[in-house]
Amino acid sequence: IADEAFIRRLPKAELHLHLEGSLEPELMFKLAERNNIELPYASVEEIRAAYDFTNLQSFLDIYYQCADVLRTEQDFYDLTWAYLLRCKEDGVVHTEPFFDPQTHTDRGIPFEVALNGIDRALCDGEEQLNITSGLIMCFLRHLSEEAAFATLEMAKPHLDKIIGVGLDSSEVGHPPEKFANVFAAAAELDLFLVAHAGEEGPSTYIETALDILDVDRIDHGVRCTDDPVLVDSLAENRVPLTVCPLSNTRLKVYDNMNQHPILKLLEQGVCVTVNSDDPAFFGGYLVDNYMALVEGLAMTRAEAVALAANSLEASFIDDELYEEWL
Ligand code: ADE
Ligand code: ZN
């Protein structure tokens, strides 16, 4: 059985982390005060008590509301820097975080305000913490493909600060193929491609993300277990899945961690990785997610090593760089 000190020391990459989802209640209060915003909660305890989710949408409603405290470039810097300090504690050597530009541009915050604050913190993280990174911007799938195109247009002058595009928000009813044209346009710009698929949505969304969007990785992807032929094909092609154990139990994809399929998929040869998704809302950062697998599934040291190695393999950094960590 793996233990916490062992897991903390393993060099790991985090490949599925929404920066807006790393906003801790303490920082939320600080930013609300700084920006003269009245929060609908009286205390940090009251906020944490509101984080009692029944499904993905019940979480997203609160998550978008909380993001309203992020107003200035410094706010985005502080958010990102706080996350990077947690990475350092957790032995994360490389991270490819997400941000949702439309959550900010739709309430009047310029694209550059969010991007520049995040980018400046990521640059400081490389210099001061020795954590390498690559930023991924996600399109909100409950909005139109036209709106995604407008976001891609805003990103064009800043492609030195963005390595890829993703797809997130409400999954069911918004299949990957809705975004076929904008993903093709992003591929033309040499951006990496990822998409949330098979979190709450069916396994067919994983297939269309791969076949129609031509993504390099699948975010979540756990519902592949409904289709054994798909699981074999994911294993054969080493398609990475960025799995988020605490997110899956908090959003009731599984009632209990002992039902989680990640270690079974690992055994079947699928390139599964461990990630924290929205740690401030789901009760834990990367090491906490590994420890949840120790507690729920009696994960061994060998399994923890394999998951950490998968995270480096699945990252978009040069293979030579990660071999130094293996
Ligand atoms: N946005 C932030 N976290 C998400 C998740 N787990 N699924 C879909 N959209 C998200
Ligand atoms: Zn996610």
Automatic annotation (TrEMBL):
Residues involved in Zn(2+) binding: 16, 18, 196, 277
Annotated substrate binding sites: 278
Cofactor note: Binds 1 zinc ion per subunit.
Record-linked Pfam families: A_deaminase (PF00962)
Cofactor(s) essential for the protein: Zn(2+)
Domain of life of the native organism: Bacteria
Residue positions of the active site: 199
Gene Ontology biological process terms in this record: adenine catabolic process; hypoxanthine salvage; nucleotide metabolic process
EC number from the UniProt entry: 3.5.4.2
Residues at the site labelled Important for catalytic activity: 220
Keywords, alphabetical: Hydrolase, Metal-binding, Nucleotide metabolism, Zinc
GO annotations of cellular component type: cytosol
SUPFAM superfamilies, per database record: Metallo-dependent hydrolases
Catalytic activities: adenine + H2O + H(+) = hypoxanthine + NH4(+)
Gene Ontology molecular function: any one: adenine deaminase activity
Domain Adenosine deaminase: 11-321
UniProt similarity note: Belongs to the metallo-dependent hydrolases superfamily. Adenosine and AMP deaminases family. Adenine deaminase type 2 subfamily.
Its biological purpose: Catalyzes the hydrolytic deamination of adenine to hypoxanthine. Plays an important role in the purine salvage pathway and in nitrogen catabolism.
Name under which the protein is recorded: Adenine deaminase
UniProt organism field: Thalassolituus oleivorans MIL-1
Lineage: Bacteria, Pseudomonadati, Pseudomonadota, Gammaproteobacteria, Oceanospirillales
